[in-house]
Write a structure and sequence with these properties.
By secondary structure, this protein is an alpha+beta fold. The protein has a five-stranded antiparallel beta sheet, with no helix packed on it. Strand 44 and strand 45 form a beta hairpin. The longest helix is centred in the C-terminal third of the chain and has 72 residues. The radius of gyration is 42 Å and the shape is flat. It starts with 18 loop residues before the first strand and ends in a 14-residue tail after the last strand. 37% of the residues are buried.
């Protein structure tokens, strides 16, 4: 069975065909020469630390990123690629590969290959195998024996004198640095720098010596293998004859470990075997005999198994995480799990099916149930009572093989059953087509309708609440909650879902209510607030068919297009805008449910799997298997083409050096990629050319960025890839680029063109500058004289007038104390004292406004706070005062400070005298280049009179003539470049906002020092 793959040849712009084989446990995909592979015979497979897969063939080496193959030729002097016989990755992460005629090569950097040679003639010896040790050494097997490379030096190991043929057929380096070598004379082990025979006793006697090999798994167990057996050397246990079919010859060619304790065995003649510690299983890769010759196996870091065959191409085995069951016909409508863990599914035309492990068979039920079609809902009680609803044939209750039917004749409001659920194991809720809801406890029934708060619209969704009661959703998009003993309360706006049916409900572990609709998107209620997501802000589709929470607390969303996982950034963030959720499972066409028929369409079973009922049948998956396999891959810039020509030097991602492009550049193309071996089709790219692109640009469907003519200058190309879920969490790759100007814009030409006009202009500018400086100096001297005079006036007013007013107030207070408590003279003295105190207060304000030392925003804020405290301290009006923690350094003129203070004073006075408020809030902030004062009260409020307008006829309630103070406040703020905003309504208090733009006012010089 062949399918469509997702592999792209670099530069081709389309994905070559990749063929799939569907099996019960694995998805198998393979690639051949038609897809970019150099040869259908694969000799070796390795993976480097950057995530790329390297595939060796008799016609050369290719690098694979999961999307496309790139041919690699380390020798520029050879027009044809070098055949590859073996590969390994050393302890430093360098890739090595051997050839039959040209020695070994090492990948020293991302693009630099180094040929390793030795005076011993290693270049002329066919390389049969390679192995890497933990200490950095590389072992090289040739037809002349075993060679060790370490720190740039080669050493040939001495063989046992009894070894007639020194040719090395295979080798394995264990994690403990033991080296095992296969020869035509049997197994050898490196001991004290020599090849010594390895003896295993009679277990391997009679076997073909060239077929013997050694493999060590992650637990440190040694396995020996021959032509028809596997031997656990650590346990002394032998497994014989795991061959299958009628082949007369069988050779174990290679062994690879998948999950711990799981071995994959590649053979010649019988293909691939799986060994789980106790038994062998043949894996049917393909009907073609080409896949029976397995020569290379490799398990990558993402958990995929790669199989290299002789003449059969490259294959990838990926564990199947999603299982489909198409059913007997018609859409699946509902799901339920009984107390034993059996999954039950109802179908629109196929009756009732049940089973475990993803396999559903017709359920064994009594005849009245077996004949039922148009099943709409299923529910189980703890005692295994099955409640089955149908469309038009009523409700059925089955227990111990007995069936009881409820219809209009038995008191239901309608014979069409739409939804059901069980609460607490003993109570069953059932909705009928007439909009009523019925609760069964055993056979006792209680019905609920409009009198109990229901809307009368059909109920399409019912889900238990975390506490008492249930959540219900209607066909008109409303959500209600049942609150004991017998009332329903609406929790959503009637127009919230635009009249679309509710098709999914979920109260998660954090207490949030999630609501899915049949066309209006997804809603989430946190407290009293609702958030909404649709296609425009991230959903894959507006039709939501299921919502489930996994054991780990993740939320899984099923829409008409497929299944996505809701990241925690969605759950806790704003719903204004999101990246589009990627589909971890994509449904076939025509899978979306038609309307709201069927409940529930999603289910989380006891084993943690999530089940969905779709138009194409039942699908189930393990959420843990669909988690991102790895972080976002690192992007590599593959090539830079200037006017169609590849540039000879490409700066590495970690290099700060810039790549210099030709001048007069007309076309620039940058090609990039990132390794993703499991889901390459989900990897998305975005790029930005700083200095040209204003923002990130998406690269949908390709791995390149193209630009036309670029102006001369310096640029930085940035590119990044998303992870499997579409999140941009990966590191950026950067490449500095320089586009030089054409020769006529070269610096020396520019200098000659501009130096003479500059020299002529400089002389004139110098004279004008001196004249301007003299005028400016005169202005500064006059300003300083003015500041000194202001300081003198402020000092004289404070010292002379202030002291005299203080003396008058003191004498009045003293004389008042000497008189009787009630007398005309005492009252006059009280008035004189009060007037003198007011004059002192006004004098302080004038001195503060005149004194140049206060010409700053910091002094203004401090004074306003002090004034507020003194003004309100002896009043009965409670207040809150919030001042900014930090105030920017900004000089203000006396006029600006004085006008702002008077407007603030007017606002406080109005609130105290007229508002009848019980609370006053004053907040000062400095943000966005403005100083803002916000005064608000909870008083009586008033109707704000329009400026210069006559009163309405008849006068509106709360309107009063006046507003002179308000107009004065606006005028004062307008004089200094600010604005005054007033908001008030009768009975809702008053809010006044004074805004002073600091960036637009003309600041005075810094405050003068104290004199």
């Amino acid at each position: 069975m062949a399918g469509v793959g997702y592999v792209l040849a670099i530069g081709a712009g389309r994905a070559p065909a990749a063929h799939r084989v569907d099996t019960a446990e694995f998805e198998i995909q393979f690639w051949s020469v038609e897809d970019g592979l150099l040869d259908n015979s694969v000799t070796s497979i390795e993976q480097t630390g950057d995530g790329f897969l390297w595939v060796g063939t008799p016609r050369g080496l290719v690098r694979f990123d999961g999307w496309s193959f790139v041919s690699v030729n380390p020798r520029a002097d050879h027009a044809t690629n070098l055949a590859v016989t073996a590969q390994c990755v050393d302890a430093k992460g360098h890739l090595w590969f051997g050839t039959p005629k040209h020695g070994v090569f090492r990948l020293a950097s991302e693009t630099e290959w180094q040929s390793e040679a030795t005076p011993m003639g290693l270049r002329d010896e066919p390389i049969s195998c390679l192995g890497a040790g933990e200490q950095g050494e590389v072992w090289i097997g040739t037809d002349q024996g075993l060679v060790r490379w370490q720190e740039g030096r080669f050493e040939r190991l001495l063989a046992d004198p009894a070894l007639a043929d020194p040719a090395v057929l295979g080798l394995h380096v264990t994690r403990s640095n033991g080296v095992w070598v296969s020869t035509r004379s049997g197994l050898r082990q490196v001991v004290d720098g020599m090849l010594r025979p390895a003896r295993f006793g009679p277990e391997v006697s009679g076997q073909s010596s060239p077929f013997l090999g050694i493999f060590e798994d992650r637990h440190g167990l040694l396995w020996a293998f021959g032509d028809s057996y596997l031997l656990n050397l650590s346990a002394g246990r032998r497994f014989n004859y795991f061959r299958g079919g009628g082949a007369t010859t069988l050779q174990v060619w290679t062994i690879c470990e998948g999950r711990p304790g799981e071995l994959w065995i590649g053979t010649t003649g019988q293909g691939l075997f799986h060994f789980d510690g106790g038994r062998f299983r043949a894996v049917d890769l393909w009907e073609s005999r080409d896949h029976s010759e397995v020569r290379a196996l490799f398990s990558d870091r993402e958990g995929n198994l790669w199989v290299g065959t002789q003449r059969g191409g490259l294959l990838r085995l990926r564990e199947r995480t999603v299982r489909w069951f198409s059913g007997p016909g018609g859409p699946a409508t509902c799901l339920a799990e009984d107390p034993t863990g059996t999954i039950w599914a109802g179908f629109q035309h196929g009756g009732l099916l049940a089973g475990r492990g993803g396999v559903l068979d017709p359920a064994t039920v009594p005849a009245p149930l077996a004949a039922q079609n148009l099943i709409t809902t299923l529910a189980f009680n703890r005692d295994r009572t099955l409640w089955l609803g149908t469309l038009g044939n009523g409700l059925h209750r089955m227990l111990d093989g007995r069936v009881m039917r409820f219809t209009l004749a038995q008191g239901l409001g309608d014979d069409s059953i739409l939804a059901s659920c069980t609460v607490g194991g003993g109570r069953t809720w059932v909705s009928t087509g007439d909009g009523c809801l019925h609760r069964f406890v055993g056979l006792a029934r209680v019905s609920f309708g409009r009198e109990e708060g229901l809307t009368g619209d059909p109920i399409t969704a019912i889900r238990p609440a975390a506490t008492a009661g249930v959540w219900v959703g209607t066909s008109k998009g409303e959500v209600l909650r049942f609150e004991p003993p017998n009332r329903f309360r609406r929790v959503s706006d009637p127009a919230m879902a635009s009249g679309k049916p509710i098709t999914a409900l979920l109260e998660d572990s954090a207490g949030r209510l999630w609501v899915g609709t049949a066309g209006a998107g997804l809603y989430c209620q946190t407290g009293e607030a609702w958030r909404h997501w649709t296609l425009t802000n991230g959903l894959p589709d507006n039709a939501v068919i299921g919502l489930e929470e996994s054991v780990r607390g993740d939320l899984w969303l099923a829409t008409a297009r497929g299944v996505s996982r809701l990241p925690r950034t969605w759950i806790g963030g704003s719903s204004s805008s999101h990246e589009r959720l990627p589909l971890l499972i994509e449904f076939p066409a025509a899978t979306a449910p038609s309307g709201a028929l069927g409940w529930p369409r999603s289910l989380r079973s006891r084993d943690g799997r999530i089940w969905l009922a779709t138009e194409s049948g039942v699908v189930n998956f393990a959420p843990s298997a669909l988690q991102p396999l790895r972080p976002a891959p690192r992007v590599r810039v593959e090539a830079v083409l200037a006017d169609g020509r590849a540039q000879p030097r490409l700066a590495a991602a970690s290099s700060a050096a810039a790549l210099r492009l030709p001048s007069g550049l007309r076309d620039l193309e940058l090609q990039f990629t990132a390794p993703s071996l499991t889901f390459p089709e989900r990897t998305r790219f975005r790029h930005q050319l700083e200095g040209f692109d204003p923002d990130w640009q998406d690269s949908p469907g390709n791995r390149r960025a193209r630009y036309g003519r670029l102006p001369a200058g310096e640029y930085r190309f940035r590119v990044t890839a998303s992870d499997a879920e579409g999140s941009w969490t990966g590191a950026e790759t950067e490449l500095a680029l320089v586009v030089p100007p054409p020769w006529w814009l070269s610096p020396w030409i520019v200098v000659l063109e501009v130096i003479l006009p500059i020299a002529l202009a400089a002389t004139a500018a110098r004279k004008l500058s001196h004249r301007r400086l003299r005028r400016q100096l005169a202005r500064v001297q006059a300003q300083q004289a003015m500041e000194r005079e202001r300081s003198r006036i402020a000092r004289d007013m404070h010292d002379e007038l202030g002291s005299k007013l203080t003396r008058i107030n003191f004498l009045c207070e003293r004389a008042r104390n000497e008189l009787a408590e009630v007398s005309p003279a005492a009252n006059k003295l009280d008035s004189i004292a009060s007037t003198s105190r007011d004059l002192l207060h006004s004098l302080d304000e004038i001195v503060w406004a005149v004194d140049p030392r206060n010409d700053s925003l910091e002094h203004l804020v401090a004074y306003l706070g002090q004034y507020t405290a003194e003004y309100l301290q002896n009043t009965a009006l409670p207040y809150d005062l919030k001042m900014p923690g930090t105030v920017p350094e900004r000089a203000l003129s006396a006029e600006v400070r004085h006008n702002l203070f008077l407007a603030f004073e007017e606002a406080l006075g109005n609130a105290l005298k007229h508002s009848k408020a019980t609370h006053l809030a004053i907040r000062m902030t400095t943000a966005d280049g403005c100083f803002v004062i916000h005064i608000s009260d909870n008083g009586c409020g008033f109707v704000l009179p329009p400026p210069l307008a006559e009163p309405p006829h008849p006068p509106a309630a709360g309107w009063r003539r006046g507003g002179t103070g308000l107009r004065g406040m606006r005028a004062r703020l307008g004089t200094i470049g600010g604005r005054c905003e007033i908001q008030s309504q009768p009975g809702r208090g008053t809010a006044i906002t004074l805004t002073l733009p600091l960036a637009t006012i003309e600041a005075s010089p810094a405050p003068a020092p104290a004199l």
